[in-house]
């Protein structure tokens, strides 16, 4: 082992001056890295570190420990990259938070809606991280903001292939993110919005209306406002989605990370009362390869069923008769324009519900369990109770085996198939 490698495996101590940040990454699957605060004050993406507590990080972790006043940190285990950064955009992010707090105070006085902020930008610029920092700072001030995650590929709420919202009542856990208590989840079924923009628009409108209703009856959340995280698809239809989000969520502030072109386009296209603000991305944000993104998606689904290192979950596996279930897929094959029935638009087939018959193609697919109790018309627009995974399909016996977080019976017999798959290797 070289000297350099040797150094990385040792227990290391870092003394950080005010406004500095320790950045590290863990890549190796077999490695665990432990962080502890020896003295001073520090935070990870807006969550304060408890002095003396040991935080564990595994493969895929890309972490920044920032200090406003200076601190001493200890790192144990082998990191792949580790360095102290002197330049960070934390002061700018903190100023954004202060401006939002001002608006929340005003909203509280007037008993109206607090700021709705949407964070946009290309891939890997730190959109989720900025959203997390703003939410953490808000909740540390005693606010109860709503977090909306529209990134169906790398979102932080529920599993990939969904859009959803969460009432934030406490700061994110440093190693596990925000607590997923009673999230409001809509099934989209794809990791990328491009796959079905018509469906995506319906879901965002539905989510926005649902949140509006919830804020009507929750004064504290109403004044705290909403933080919306978006995906990195910002061209063509993706850009139109951003404009649509601005409208349906009644966005007041758009934070544009890293891309001046997008900033200028938005300034041109959104109404004047929407403030568009350009922010530098942090030099620490790490670009993720396609395979790292796929691995992160897989990990989120695994955690949904099996929990995390700290809090394991024990899912159930059971058979269901095909006749007991109604499994749908959203989107029918396209019909040539010339054959479209009167009044039907070319894109309408994308939001058509198709009832599936038993088939092996369902194997390993995620199925969303709908809350819908009324007719077929409402299935797409109704939020979901949770997810199961198909681990076996027995065509002869007309049985399907499901991996489920809950024991039998399912809360509803209406299921919707997702494009996303999960190989249960436990
Ligand atoms: N200051 C930092 N130092 C080190 N790592 C960071 C820092 N900020 C963010 N990261 C890491 O960089 C990665 C990408 O950040 P993030 O997920 O916020 O980007 P994004 O723009 O939301 O990505 P996406 O393209 O998926 O929408 C994450 O793993 C995050 O933990």
Automatic annotation (TrEMBL):
ATP binds at residues 21, 62, 124-129. One of its GO terms (biological process) is tRNA splicing, via endonucleolytic cleavage and ligation. Residues 121-307 form the Clp1 P-loop domain. Residues 313-424 form the Clp1 C-terminal domain. Keywords: ATP-binding, mRNA processing, Nucleotide-binding, Nucleus. It is found in: Nucleus. Residues 15-107 form the Clp1 N-terminal domain. Belongs to the Clp1 family. Clp1 subfamily. InterPro entries: Clp1, Clp1/Grc3, Clp1_C, Clp1_C_sf, Clp1_N, Clp1_N_sf, CLP1_P, P-loop_NTPase. One of its GO terms (cellular component) is mRNA cleavage factor complex. It holds the Pfam family CLP1_P. Required for endonucleolytic cleavage during polyadenylation-dependent pre-mRNA 3'-end formation. GO terms for molecular function: ATP binding; polynucleotide 5'-hydroxyl-kinase activity. This is Protein CLP1 homolog.
């Amino acid at each position: 082992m070289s000297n350099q490698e040797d150094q990385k495996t040792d227990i290391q101590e870092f003394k950080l001056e005010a406004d500095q940040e320790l950045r590290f990454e863990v890549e190796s699957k077999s490695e665990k890295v432990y962080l502890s605060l020896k003295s001073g004050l520090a935070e990870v993406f807006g969550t304060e570190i408890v002095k003396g507590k040991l935080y564990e990080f595994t493969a895929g972790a890309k972490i920044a420990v920032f200090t406003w006043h200076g601190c001493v940190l200890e790192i144990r285990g082998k990191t792949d990259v580790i360095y102290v950064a002197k330049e960070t955009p934390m002061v700018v992010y903190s100023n954004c938070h202060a401006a939002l707090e001002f608006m929340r105070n005003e909203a509280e006085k007037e008993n109206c809606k607090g700021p709705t902020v949407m964070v946009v930008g290309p891939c890997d610029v730190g959109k989720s991280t900025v959203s997390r920092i703003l939410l953490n700072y808000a909740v540390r001030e005693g606010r109860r903001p709503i977090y909306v995650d529209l990134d169906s590929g790398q979102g932080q709420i529920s599993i990939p292939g969904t859009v959803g919202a969460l009432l934030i009542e406490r700061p994110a856990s440093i190693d596990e993110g925000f607590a997923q208590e009673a999230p409001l989840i809509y099934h989209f079924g794809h990791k990328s919005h491009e796959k079905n923009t018509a469906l995506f628009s319906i879901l965002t409108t539905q989510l926005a209306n649902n949140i509006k209703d919830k804020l009507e009856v929750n004064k504290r959340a109403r004044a705290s406002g909403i933080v919306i995280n978006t995906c990195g698809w910002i061209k063509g239809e993706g850009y139109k989605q951003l404009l649509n989000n601005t409208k349906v969520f009644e966005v007041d502030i758009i934070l544009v990370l890293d891309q001046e072109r997008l900033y200028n386009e938005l300034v041109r296209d959104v109404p004047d009362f929407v403030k568009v603000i350009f922010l530098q991305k942090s030099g620490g944000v790490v670009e993720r390869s396609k395979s790292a993104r796929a691995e992160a998606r897989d990990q989120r689904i695994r955690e949904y069923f099996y929990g995390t290192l700290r809090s394991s979950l024990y899912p159930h596996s059971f058979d269901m008769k095909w006749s007991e279930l109604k499994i749908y897929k959203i989107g029918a094959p396209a019909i040539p324009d010339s054959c479209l029935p009167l009044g039907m638009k070319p894109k309408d087939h994308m939001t058509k519900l198709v009832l599936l018959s038993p088939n092996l193609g369902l194997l390993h697919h995620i199925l969303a369990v709908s809350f819908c109790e009324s007719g077929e018309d409402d299935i797409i627009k109704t939020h979901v109770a949770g997810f199961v995974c198909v681990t076996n399909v027995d065509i002869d016996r007309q049985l399907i085996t499901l991996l489920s977080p809950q024991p039998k019976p399912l809360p509803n017999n209406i299921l919707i198939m997702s494009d996303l798959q999960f190989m249960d290797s436990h």
